[in-house]
Task: inverse folding
């Protein structure tokens, strides 16, 4: 059996990219649904036809797990931002790393950092390669001899499961499925399901502060992390490992874990972490609520977020998002509600949440309950949405081949500022799309997470592209979106990261002096500045 | 009406220190209860009789809110650690600051930092002065001309309340009662009730990562903080203010707020923060559960902590703690359970928690429910404990005057390591008390917070002192406790801080390289090193 291969240019598995004829049909359907006229379909440049520069640096022989093999370098060039997929599609892999390392032990990671500091080689920690902010792309920085992609997927084991404390020690290179299958042997689950779950890794989730499965309460990877182990370039020189204690909580100084969380590969290479795991849920409850008016749906969503009921699902789809995902086609906004527990039946929780939704004019479906440990949430409106969620990134591949620009952006904002922000986003992003595309476009919004003090809105935009101008068009739309977010007090991330894409806006968001603080930290932990130069800081 | 004065040497209000005769009687009761023979009672050195060194530095005239007045300097010398109270009692105020500043605006805070950098004066941010880790005590550091206590209590206003998002902008110098009374005008509450609530301030809570009212779920001040505003010495030079955005969540880079949280006045002076507030609870449920065996009680407590029910109270008192606090005198361990909500009645929550407790042999009281917004939790066993909680620090004053050493220490530890840690603490701390006191002593334990992955045990020890040797005896007991915590994988804090007291153990706890990281941060934000030198780092 040959190994299933990922696409060398687009999202996910290569075998999931439909044939030309099928894409043509999809394009016609899209045209009818969104009023966007597709072109093409065009075909991606084949792996063998990619032109690649020669490696500028060679690794010493003792680093036997480092390669300059052409396909490896191509496959480690990009993450999966729109910009990455668009460049990969046309065969532009100019920022390819010179070398790719496949360590299988922490010691080997240390050897790479040790050598790279002396050889002035930039090192980009690489997990699933699913960054949507150019977080793993590293064009040769000034003063460097070469670049190396440090692929950590060889460190993919669950090393210990501590059932009493519900914690597990997991290597950073484990992908979602890899770590879940190992945890399942102990009846445990991490329940962190970012959209990239199939391919992304624990280390990547920590480095980018991934948002997880739950719509409320402890869901950020930050909250699930009990301790982090990392190698820093300075530490490697001193023979030291950065390792925090496994603790349920501590007030001792600023948290060292919170320093690594979100560091995006610029301060150290995360090698493993103690994570807070849990038994698989046994009880589930799900329902969906339709709203005629979006403002009412937002208010209901806020009431549930502030109720202390802590639903596992509380995702509000606006009418366009509901339509796009085939959850509702009558113009309703839909609130998907779910609860899950390994401990107790959930009727009182769901009943109260539906009461709150009804207070704001919501029309709920009959809630479904399950106490068998079997899923019930995969049918009906919630199920439609969930399937769409997993498949959505694949759609971007297809649309690109049809000459259509499709992307998403996210943020978080206090409830009191959402209405104004949303209106500005609709105006400015629609305006930008109109300007660069001159034709009808799609913009929709869902909430991925909700907090007592605000929602995390997630926008999808789709606009027709002009062949050869797609990157420019995308940049104009992205700028309109990002400027609006920053002007209206929201946060600038995508799949929770800053990367290279968001740096100009991140500078405006962060406190004055925080840039100096980050640079000082980097100076202490990575004095040669070899780790992921150009990202974040 | 004259202003109520705090004790110049001991915990809390001066008028709460009982007269000689009353203390004598308390001593006799204590002798019977714990088998400890008190001495004295001795009398504290009166404020007027304290010998104080002259101020070594003078502030410029434009800093009109800075004083070198004798009483002010005495009152700002110490926090309220055992070591502080013991030194204050005998009139030793040798580490007194030279100056005390009472700014009432952020601008005035900036003027102090500006001047102090040039004049090489160490600045200690001061809130309630309730540190139990020598966090506000600042003996003259080498190379400094003098020391200044920066009392922030003049910045005590709630500046904005945003009801839709349930957030409030609060100045850092507001004490617990001050901020709660202002929030109450808007029907809101922060619900952060550390034991020091009456005197300590929001800024102090943030700087020391205070633990709050709730025994589970979002309770740390870290979780309640939506944005922080601070002045750093470097920022003051550049005319910059460190201010993060008010956001419900963000994955953009390492969190700047988490850098200030726990910084203990060494990186910046926190001037205000946006805090997550909530309406006062309307529904309450409370019950207590007795256990014959402590191991069963621990297991039950763990089951509740891992259930996802999120009780507001889940405090386990061992049999000695239950006895000391007059919650149970029959040798039972007692689990105090409570739920509260502003949204929904709590019967299903409490019912399931009691089921879990019964699974482990617990004998629950009849649960009490209230839906009127009135408290029911203040009677019965929970009520006894709550009153004891508030009054406990006052007892230390009394015991000290009776020649008795009484103090507490805290930690957090994964569930799987608790039993071993607890056994070692009992052995080593009892051993140390026996060695320095040679007579029967008291050691008891309660859980202040519980997490899915572990409890936060909090120990009380009481041992007879030898006149004049109390500090030495205390240090030996403290060392035994702290060594044991660090050896057994626990965390070293007290009321969540490191301060000056815990530095040797904090160095062992933190990751290798984290000290360099903190020093680098400090170098960037406080290049002259004027902020609280000697604390934390």
Result:
């Amino acid at each position: 059996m040959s190994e299933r291969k990922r696409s060398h240019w687009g999202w996910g598995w290569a075998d999931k990219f439909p044939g030309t004829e099928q894409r043509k049909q999809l394009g016609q359907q899209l045209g009818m649904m969104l009023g966007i006229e597709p072109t093409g379909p065009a075909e991606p440049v084949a792996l063998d036809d990619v032109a690649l520069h020669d490696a500028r640096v060679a690794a010493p022989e003792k680093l036997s797990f480092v390669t300059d093999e052409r396909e490896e370098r191509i496959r480690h060039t990009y993450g999966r931002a729109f910009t990455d997929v668009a460049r990969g599609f046309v065969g532009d892999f100019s920022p390819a790393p010179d070398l790719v390392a496949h360590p299988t032990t922490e010691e080997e990671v240390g050897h790479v950092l040790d050598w790279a500091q002396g050889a002035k080689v930039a090192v980009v920690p690489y997990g699933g390669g699913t960054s949507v902010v150019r977080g793993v792309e590293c064009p040769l920085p000034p003063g460097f001899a070469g670049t190396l992609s440090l692929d950590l997927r060889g460190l993919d084991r669950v090393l210990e499961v501590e059932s009493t404390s519900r914690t597990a020690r997991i290597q950073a290179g484990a992908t979602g499925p890899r770590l879940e299958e190992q945890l399942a042997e102990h009846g445990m689950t991490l329940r962190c399901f970012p959209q990239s779950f199939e391919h992304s890794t624990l280390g990547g989730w920590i480095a980018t502060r991934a948002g997880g499965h739950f719509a409320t309460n402890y869901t950020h990877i930050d909250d699930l992390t009990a301790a982090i182990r990392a190698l820093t370039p300075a530490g490697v020189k001193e023979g030291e490992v950065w390792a925090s204690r496994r603790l349920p909580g501590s007030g001792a100084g600023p948290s060292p874990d919170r320093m690594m969380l979100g560091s995006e590969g610029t301060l150290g290479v995360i090698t493993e972490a103690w994570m807070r795991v849990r038994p698989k849920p046994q009880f589930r409850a799900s329902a969906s609520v339709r709203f005629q008016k979006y403002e009412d749906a937002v208010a209901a969503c806020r009431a549930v977020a502030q109720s202390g009921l802590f639903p596992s699902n509380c995702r509000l789809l606006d009418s366009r998002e509901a339509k796009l995902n085939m959850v509702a086609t009558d113009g309703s906004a839909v609130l998907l509600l779910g609860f899950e527990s390994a401990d107790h039946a959930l009727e009182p929780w769901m009943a109260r949440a539906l009461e709150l939704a009804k207070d704001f004019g919501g029309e709920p479906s009959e809630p479904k309950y399950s106490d068998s440990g079997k899923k019930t949430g995969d049918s009906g409106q919630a199920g439609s949405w969930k399937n769409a969620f997993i498949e959505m990134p694949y759609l971007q591949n297809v649309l690109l081949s049809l000459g259509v620009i499709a992307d998403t952006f996210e943020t978080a904002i206090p409830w009191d500022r959402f209405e104004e922000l949303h209106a500005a986003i609709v105006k400015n992003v629609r305006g930008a799309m109109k300007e660069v595309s001159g034709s009808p476009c799609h913009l929709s919004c869902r909430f991925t997470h909700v907090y007592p003090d605000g929602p995390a809105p997630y926008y999808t935009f789709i606009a027709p592209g002009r062949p050869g101008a797609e990157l420019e068009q995308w940049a104009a739309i992205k700028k309109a979106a990002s400027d609006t977010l920053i002007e209206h007090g929201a946060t600038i991330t995508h799949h929770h990261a800053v990367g290279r894409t968001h740096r100009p806006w991140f500078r405006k968001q962060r406190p004055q002096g925080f840039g100096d603080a980050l640079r000082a930290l980097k100076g202490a932990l990575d004095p040669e500045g070899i780790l992921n130069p150009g990202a974040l800081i």
Remarks:
- Chain A touches chain B through 94 residues (CB under 8 Å).
